[in-house]
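Let us walk through a complete example step by step. Step one is to write down the protein sequence. Step two is to encode the small molecule, 2-acetamido-2-deoxy-beta-D-glucopyranose, as a SMILES string so that its atoms and bonds are unambiguous. Step three, shown after the inputs, is the structure prediction itself.
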Amino acid sequence: MAFCNPNVQESLCSFFLFFTLLLASSYSSYALSSISTSTTSVTVDQAMALLEWKDSLNNQSQTVLHSWKLLDPNATNSSLQSDLCSWYGISCNQRGIITEINLPSMGLQGMVKNFPFPSLPSLMRLNLNNNSLFGSVPSNIGNLSVINYLDLSKNHLSELIPLEICSLTGLEILSLGDNCFHGSIPYEMGRLKNLTSLTLFSNNLSGSIPTSLGNLSNLQQLSLYQNKLNGSIPVSLGNLRYLTILRLLENQLSGIIPLEIGNMSSLKNLELGDNHFSGVLPQGLCMSRSLVNFSAPNNHFTGLIPRGFKNCTGLVRVELQNNQLAATLSKDFGVYEKLNYIDLRNNQLNGELTSSTWFQCKNLQALLMSGNKITGKIPPDVGKLTQLHELDLSSNYLVGEIPKEFGELTYLLYLNLRGNQLSGSLPSEIGKLYSLTTLDLSGNSLSGQIPKEIGNCSNLLYLDLSNNRLNGSIPFQIGNIIYLQILLDLSQNWLSGEMPSQFTNLGKLEKLNLSHNQLSGTILSAFYGMYSLTSIDISYNEFEGPLPKNRAFQNATIERLRNNTALCGNVSGLQPCEHSSLSKPDNKNLIIVMVVVLSLLFLLFASASIACVVHQIIRLRYVGKKQRTPSPGWNLFSVCNFDGKNLYQEIIKATEDFDAKYCIGMGGSGSVYKAKLSTNQVVAVKKLHQPLQDEYEEDAKKKTFSSEIRALTEMRHRNIVKLYGFCSVGQHSLLVYDYFERGSLAKVLENNELASELDWEKRIVVIKGVANALSYMHNDCIPPIIHRDISSNNILLNVKYEACVSDFGTARLMQPYSSNYTPLVGTRGYIAPGNKFDTFLIIVELDSELDFKF
Ligand SMILES: *[C@@H]1O[C@H](CO)[C@@H](O)[C@H](O)[C@H]1NC(C)=O
Ligand SMILES: *[C@@H]1O[C@H](CO)[C@@H](O)[C@H](O)[C@H]1NC(C)=O
Ligand SMILES: *[C@@H]1O[C@H](CO)[C@@H](O)[C@H](O)[C@H]1NC(C)=O
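Step three: the predicted structure of the complex.
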């Protein structure tokens, strides 16, 4: 499966890992100093020392370093040069002196203790990032007297950071992050005056941040996050006037943030979250408008949001949740054109959401303000935030109606307005939110009927309308929300009438609460198909008749059933059901009435069936006509005929029965063809090697399976390839996707010319796209959808080199009933990577925490 040019991939991987470092490093000084170093060229002793280190590594590492060997065992100092300087990862300058050793991500395993530091006095760059080196770093690292780039991050190095590192005063980049160093940060580190980047994150470092770090006057990046540092931030850090990135999150730091930090005029990223900081935020923060990313959640900050915030126009991401910050919404914030994500949950914000500020932030994707003291109405301008994915205004004091302009927010996935004082009726425009997965409007004063349009929100997994004053009957369209899974809560309203029988379609629903309403009638048929139900509450209604046989009812206690009109069943507290009261009529008239009614029903049913058949015939003719002349915008793949013959015929025609000349790719699961349909639409058709489904599978399973596919066809995300539908006819199973001109990332990387056209900037765009797609599927889909075959073959590029991940979910579709097929738990799958880029992608997939803030 390894298709890519290995050099390209490696550089792509390491590029990403070192993204920040590269940004910070300066190459010019590096070139200068290489001229002034010692004149000893490579020696037999050096070669021996390096080979000795190689021998101390495990077998696999030795294989990786197979180019490290002496061709001539009697080599002399002078004959060695061409040899040693061509060993993998070793670079010499023009005079044959070793200046660089670059062995990142090589899988090297062994002790760093044996590394021949003393034999490499002219080394300027040492990169051992992302290996499995362990043990302590020896003090003779101090022999690297001219080094300026030292990266030992992502290993298992332990013990103390050796003091001798602090004598390497030429260092510009020092990366020791993601190891197991403990002890404190040496005070002497303040001597490394040339440092531009110091990263010590993800270790076990304790003690306080040495004040001496304030002497590192060239520092641009300081990353100390995920350690056990305590004490407060030294005031001296305010001297670091070139600092752009300061990451201190996830430590045990306390005290106030020195005013001086607020005056750092270059600071773009300030991350202070998950510490014990208190007091007010420095008022000067962002006076220089440089801040892009400010996060300080989960601390004890009090007082007002800094004054500088109002004009901090460059902000992209803000996280201040779970503090005690005060501010007036309409006054203390400005208009942030670039703002993408703001989380201010659980603070002391007050005032109203005015149209002149928040609703001008056109790029907002997440606006999270629950648990504050926000008053007033939600202005209709909320409809301007068309990029919004998440809106949480719950637990505030909002009043007035829910504006119908919510219908404009078609990307909205999460809407939570619970626990306010909203009134009026629920606008029918809510039905336009077809992406919505969570809707919580509970605990308000909403009245009127539940709009039937809610049935169009077919992606909902969680629907809570409880504790309102909703009346009328439950619209049967709720039965269309077939993915509803986590909760359907309509309790504590004034709903009446019967439970719609369409509830039987809610086969995934786990929790249903209808308690405290005036619902009536019997419940047997509505619950028939609700296989997944584990918890029900139908207490305080007017239901009657026998209990359904679902597990949820079998486990239900009387508390969940009590106070109904006449429920019967095998639960203590309920009367047992008398077997068919019809069989022992005490009155002959009743029998006669029954017979008449039944015959009438029969007649009615028979004529209805005939009408249905006639209607079908007419409809089929009509559809047949219509398909020959498709109207513009009419889509062949509408879900209703996603397994239709028609599409299949079209594809057969367009590909001349899957002629090889239309084949544009082959993969593990099938071959891909390009098909130009009669509508002029060009699509990619994936013909699967194995049939998608077994004709003889039970109906229920078939049904879940097709709803899975339907879920995938209904998914819309700019970085996920659109799946139009599938056909399964005879031996062929076809998936129909959007067609991409540039083909897959693998194809581009394979071709040297195309690969070089895919420059770093474009690669970042690719990585971001993939990360967005994965983050969406992992975090915004419940249960999370895991790709399980993420590789450069499945990443397609459009003309602008934007990435789209294809084949989402089809890994699961291939074996729909395997043990992995459990919609209730998000299983993490894994497919062995084909190449390094793919390894990286899998890491991105498994670690959805990765943030791509640049
Ligand atoms: C190689 O050079 C080193 C230092 O320049 C010297 O000490 C050593 O004796 C030389 N070895 C040989 C075999 O010439
Ligand atoms: C290397 O470092 C050690 C200990 O720091 C020191 O004793 C030794 O003289 C140094 N050797 C060279 C070649 O610089
Ligand atoms: C159902 O809702 C009522 C009222 O909202 C609540 O008191 C009850 O605990 C809920 N039942 C379950 C099982 O969650």
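Step four is interpretation. The chain has five domains: 41-180, 241-574, 588-626, 629-738, 745-846.
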